[in-house]
Amino acid sequence: MNEQAGLVAIHQLSGVGWHTIDKLFQAGWSPGQELTPSIIDRLKSQKVPKQTVERIREKWTPQFVKEVAEELKHRRITAITAMDDRYPALLKEIAQPPWVLYIKGDPELLHTPALAMVGTRKPTPYGLRVTRTLTGQLTEAGWTVVSGMANGIDGESHRSVLKAGGKTVAVLGSGVDVIYPKNHRSLYAEIVEKGAVISETPPGTQPHPGLFPQRNRIISGLSYGTIVVEAAERSGSLITADFSMEQGREVFAVPGPVTSAQSLGTLRLIQQGAKCVVDAQDIFEELSHVLPVVREAAVSGLQTEPELTGREREILIHIQSEPIQIDILLEKVSGKMTVGEVHQTLLSLEIKQKIAQLPGAQYVRK
What we know:
Layout: H1 3-11, H2 18-26, H3 37-45, H4 50-59, H5 62-74, E1 78-81, H6 89-92, E2 100-105, E3 114-118, H7 125-141, E4 144-147, H8 153-163, E5 167-171, H9 185-194, E6 196-199, H10 211-221, E7 225-228, H11 237-246, E8 250-253, H12 264-271, E9 275-276, H13 280-286, H14 291-303, H15 310-318, E10 324-325, H16 326-332, H17 339-351, E11 355-358, E12 362-365
Parallel strand pairs: 3-4, 3-7, 4-5, 5-6, 7-8, 8-9
Antiparallel strand pairs: 1-2, 2-6, 10-12, 11-12
Helix pairs in contact: 1-5, 7-8, 8-9, 10-11, 15-17
Domain Smf/DprA SLOG: 80-287
InterPro entries: DprA, DprA_WH, DrpA_SLOG, WH-like_DNA-bd_sf
Domain DprA winged helix: 303-360
C-alpha cells in the first residue's frame, strides 16, 4: 500500500483528526501497512474513542484507500501529505502542521515566496485602496499573496493580485471543494484557474466557526510574514497575526485613523511591536534575506505580462496610490514621449483599468 495514499485515506474518515493520526504514529502505525491488533490495542490505551478505533479498523482497507485516490483524481483535487517532498517547507516549521493538504489549482505556488494579507470583512474605502496598492507592489516584486477568501480585505487581496497578473493562494475554512462565502463563486473559480485553493479538511467539509482559527495558522504558516490592513479590536485577522508571531514570522500592520473602528486592531498591533507599513518597501526592508528569490520570481512575472506596452510601463512607474497632476507627469517623461503620446497612453491605461482619472487632471493607480 502506498504510504501517501494510505495517510490521505485515513484522513478522510469521520472522527479522525490531527491528534488521532498523531496517536496512530505513536502506536507504531505506518500508512503503508495494514493495522495490526497490537496497534489497535495501543490506540485504545491512548484514550482514542472506541467508536473511532472501530471505524478505522473497519473502514481503512486497501480497497478504501484505492477508492479515495480515484475519487480525488476524478475531482482534480491534489492531496499532499506531510511525508511528501512537495509539502511546503515553511509549513513544516509550525506547531501541528496539517497531515494532509488538499489543493485545487497549481500546487507549485506553495513553494513560491509568499506573504499573507488579511483584514476586516467590513473594510472602509481607505482599507480597500491600501489593499490594492500593496498587492500591486507585492505582485510587481514577485511575491505570492496568501489570504482566506473571506469577504472584505481577504477577497480584495485575491482580486487585486489576479487583476495584476500575480500569484495568489486561498486557504479555506471548509473543504477545498466547498465555496464559502457563496458570493465568491466567481472569485473561487478564477483562483483555481490562475492560482491555488487549499484546505486541510477533507473535501465536502462544510464551514463552521471552529475551522477558521485552524485555517488562519495555515495562512500565516505558508508565509514569511502577515500584513494586516484593517482590523477591529476583536477581529479574526488578529488571530492570524498572533499565529504569525508564534511561528516566528514577521507581522506588519497598516496604520489608520484612531477614530476608525476598523483601524483599532492594527493600531494595537503597532503598539505591540508590529512593523508599521505605509508602503511595500517597509515590508521588503524586514525581509531582505528573501529578496534574491523574490527578485527571480519578479523577473519571470514581468515576462508573462504582455498586455502592457513599453510606453504604458513607463507611465505606470510614475502613477502610484497618491494622485499625480498631468503637468508633473509630463515633466517626468519629458524627452521620452510627446504630449500626444502621453495622453494616448493614459487613455489606454484607463481602458485596461490600470489607472483612474480624478478631477483636476490627476491620475491615480487602481
